[in-house]
Amino acid sequence: MSLSHDQIMRVLFGARSRLSAAAWVIARDAQAAEDIFQNVALKALAETLSFEHDGALLSWATVCARREAMDWLRRRQPEVATLDADLLDLLEAEALQDAARAEPGRWAALEECLQALPSEARQLLEWRYFDGRSCAEVATAAGMNLDAVYQRLSRLHRQLRACIERRLAAATPEAHP
Amino acid sequence: MNSGDKFDLLMRYLDRRLGGEDLRTFNDLLRSDAELRDWLREISCQAVALGDVARREARQREARVIPLPASIHRKWLPRLAWAAGVVLLAGIGAVWLQQRSTANGPTLVEANGTVVWSRDGKTQRASRPGSRLSAGTLESVGDGAAAHLRFPDGSRFTLAGNSELSFAVREPNRLALKRGSLTGTITPQRAGHPWVVHTPTAEIEVLGTVFTLNALTDATQLNVEEGRVRLRRLVDGRVEEIPAKHSAVASLDPRETFCAVALSAPPVEWEARCEAPPPRASKAEWRDANGGVPARWRAVPLVMGRRADGAPVIHFGVSLRDTAQPWAGSFVALAPDSRLTLRWRSERPTRLLVLLITQRPGGGFGGNFEWKSPQVANAANGAGWQETSLSLSDFAPLLPNHAEFAGHGLSALIITAFGKDAGLEVAAVRVDAPPKP
């Protein structure tokens, strides 16, 4: 029996972060990744499509998100290339094995870590990932040079990851014999 | 390669600045370096999450500015509590749905031409992509103007041509199209919570579909591209379900036909008939043939936008639509090898600006494309008609998100001499494709 519309939405929303991240790796634009996820959700409900199980739906959604991201990039910046197809497959396979990265607890921890950042660092991240500015535009806005923006973003990503892992570790109850 | 160098490559890839040999090196490095792949996945998740957090905070900031009435709190608090109790997979979807229900204004994704936002007598230009609009009225001024909006639930709308749209923060999913053209791509909505769009003569309800509304003061036309739309004619309350690839008109006259009509594909060739006045929805002054001069259409003032001080931007030109009604759709299909040929002249030297306004096959806004003549043309002598033949690839898209026209139809063609009255006249317009070998 095919998945109902409710089931399709539930499965897609469950995989939302992974599908959006897969689109983001290609488009490298958070708004575009969000749009692509929503387009995929809309397409999945088309009368002409039916999915027998969650796996079939997710495989289709991943391919669809990737294709839409490539189309978006081609329309927006045809001169910009993306990763080789085999690498995208590899990243997707690893993302499937690493389901913990997309779980809600991790996202909540990220939110707490963002709140704890100095406002200047938050601003830099928002310019880059919410406003979708290029690093050169961020550099101009922040009065920095391009290399300094790369280094600052690299440090912030490392800092956020360390913070998330600390918070997750603190929230995990210790095992008792 | 040390860790710093690897991160530098990663940052440059994410900044879309990596190409050629560097990109090949990065691909090879990723294949062999599991830690680098792990960082790429980590940063992609962080970027998506950062976008979500920033969007939600922006909504919360606006929600604090305009408090919800108590009845709304009563309505939504139990649902928020329910959402808080739902975990893991369903939780993400529930959060998304709650975010949608507390929707505020849309984000301006892109704009072309004059787009003005106003509220309580205050008016300002809305042109910066990414700017968030609060409750108010958005107006696009001029045939070539367009604004592309995205609401917090992901639903997208394009306001095109001379159009006016109002939206309120306190009534999520409810819009009023006072006049003009609105194309909507609605994300799937929960049953019982449709998007509702009002026009002077109709009301539509949509739960997830692609549609276009064209509103005049005395009639509204609906085209449905995907899904189904419920259309209510206000004059007598009759309701029709309009399926995909169909159209219907709701006017103020209850005796008029009110039913779904299948959309038909336009022809692949089209030629303007200058021997008669242009169709009602066109703008040009018709001059009959006389003294060996062929029949032609002469440029008239066209409002192409509005300056910051409110004064209209006028171009003298010819605006062609092949129908009596501005909404009646595209009149010729555009293919990648289509050509546009103009026979024209001017009394004074001028450059030409040609604007194509296109529709998708289902009637939705398909994008605007322009061509500007590269140099000042010589003034024509008494018989000096010029022929300009253009390939569609000569036209540049005015909106990056609407950059393709293959498969679209042409709904309006505007030929102007920029700002001045150069005595521009057009004697023939043809769109066709070269014969296949």
Description:
The complex is a heterodimer of chains A (177) and B (437). Chain A has 177 residues and is mainly α. Chain A is 74% helix and 0% strand. Chain A is built from 9 helices and no strands. In chain A, helix 3 crosses helix 4 (54-76). Chain A is globular. The termini of chain A are far apart. The model of chain A has no long low-confidence stretch (mean pLDDT 83). With 437 residues, chain B is α+β, with helices and mostly antiparallel strands. In chain B, 20% of the residues lie in helices and 38% in strands. Chain B is built from 5 helices and 26 strands. Chain B has helices spanning 3-14, 20-32, 34-65, 70-85, 88-101; strands at 107-119, 122-125, 136-150, 156-167, 174-185, 195-198, 202-206, 210-215, 219-226, 229-233, 239-242, 246-251, 261-262, 270-271, 285-287, 296-298, 300-306, 312-320, 332-333, 339-345, 353-359, 365-372, 386-391, 396-397, 409-416, 425-432. In chain B, the strands form 3 sheets. In chain B, strands 1, 2, 3, 4, 5, 6, 7, 8, 9, 10, 11, 12 and 13 form a 13-stranded mixed beta sheet that branches. In chain B, helix 1 (3-14) crosses helix 2 and helix 4 runs antiparallel to helix 5. In chain B, 44% of the residues are buried. The chains are: A mainly alpha (177), B alpha+beta (437).
Brief synopsis:
The complex is a heterodimer of chains A (177) and B (437). By secondary structure, chain A is an all-alpha fold. In chain A, 74% of the residues lie in helices and 0% in strands.
